[in-house]
Amino acid sequence: MFEALIGDINLEKYMGQWLQMAAKPAFFQNGCNKSYAKYKLEYEGDMPIVKVEN
Description:
Elements: H1 3-6, E1 16-19, E2 36-44, E3 47-53
Antiparallel strand pairs: 1-2, 2-3
């Protein structure tokens, strides 16, 4: 159903915790270190939903 939008991508491959290696400095990130995001795959019926925790 959504293949036209996302193509042939394996969402499971990208789930888990990802660390930020580098970034362009931004005022709202002052004092941030060891930044990461956690990605979790859930489904609503047949629709994959990617949940992100920053």
